[in-house]
From TrEMBL:
Family annotation (Pfam families): GST_C, GST_N_2
Limits of the GST N-terminal domain: 1-81
Domain GST C-terminal: from-to ranges: 86-207
Identification of the protein by name: Glutathione S-transferase
PROSITE patterns per UniProt: GST_CTER, GST_NTER
Length: 207
């Protein structure tokens, strides 16, 4: 059975868990990370020298990096409906997966650490205001994209891109900052809430 190493409070672990629900793929999750088994232990570092979750162990195959894990699971376990094989359709999914991992993650890091994690190192009001504005700008960009598709991030159909971005949207909504009215994002959130995997691993009270 597929092993997933990582605690459920990790947004990146929850990407993998949600994808498994979409694939009807059984798994066994193990608690690793802060407060649980340490990721700097020799046992874990043999699996991921970056000392970060998630890691999957699929038989004798070990893989880390959450968005790479999503792609592998879809390719390995009949997930063409989540990660299409046609080059242009796949490129659209990859584009938004990469955008989530780079531009969007960079935008929310400071506000999330400041307002949710209450990190003492992230309490500069000027930096917080600037980073919050950047995060909102990224969400406005996503609003424009969803106005264009009228459905999901990569197009008409739900895909792996929606797993990554849906969890990021949940984080934005649950972070206590000003949220301007973005109707396409609100409608998108309602569509995601029709999916059991999102309710269990996304819209479940965790930021």
């Amino acid at each position: 059975m597929l092993r997933i190493l990582g605690k459920t409070s990790s947004i990146n672990v929850r990407k993998v868990l949600w994808t498994c629900v979409e694939l009807n793929l059984p798994f066994r999750r193990e608690d690793w990370g802060s407060g649980f088994q340490p990721t700097d232990s020799p046992e874990f570092l043999r699996l991921n020298p970056n000392a970060m979750v998630p890691v999957i162990v699929d038989g004798d195959f070990v893989l880390w990096e959450s968005n790479t894990i999503l792609r592998y699971l879809a390719n390995q376990y009949g997930g063409a409906h989540l990660y299409p094989g046609a080059p242009r359709a796949r490129a659209a999914v990859d584009q938004w997966l990469d955008w989530q991992a780079t531009d969007l993650n960079d935008a929310w890091r400071y506000p999330f650490l400041s307002l949710v994690r209450q990190s003492p190192a992230h309490q500069d009001p000027t930096l917080l205001a600037s980073a919050s504005a950047q995060w909102t700008a990224r969400m406005r960009l996503l609003e424009q994209r969803l106005e264009s598709t009228g459905a999901f991030v990569a197009g008409n159909d739900f895909s792996l891109a929606d797993v990554a971005i849906g969890l990021s949207l949940n984080r934005w909504l649950r972070t206590p900052l000003e949220h301007p009215p973005l109707p396409a994002l609100a409608a998108y959130h309602a569509r995601l809430r029709q999916r059991p995997g999102f309710l269990e691993h996304g819209d479940n009270g965790l930021p």
